[in-house]
Design brief:
With 78 residues, the chain is α/β, with parallel strands linked by helices. 31% of the residues lie in helices and 19% in strands. This is DUF5615 domain-containing protein.
Length: 78
């Protein structure tokens, strides 16, 4: 599974996950995605075959299911 970490996640997390063998890119590593609307982030994720990993349930959950390759909604409490 290819993942796209939403903007709330640091580059370091993506680096650590890649070091462990995962196919991960963070929004903060893609200059064209930084600061973009969620719909644009999901469009890019769909076009690149990536599942968006986010804690931003409120904004992502209502998006059209055809607009993304998948969502992994993470509970924000740590």
């Amino acid at each position: 599974m290819s993942l796209l970490l939403d903007e709330m996640y640091p580059r370091r997390l993506a680096e650590q996950l890649r070091a462990a063998g995962h196919d991960v890119v963070a929004v903060v590593e893609v200059p064209d995605l930084v600061g973009r609307e969620d719909a644009e982030v999901t469009r890019w994720a769909r076009e690149t075959g990536r599942v968006v990993v986010t804690e931003n349930v409120v904004d992502y959950a209502p998006l059209d299911l055809d607009a993304h390759a998948g969502l992994l909604l993470v509970h924000g409490r740590r």
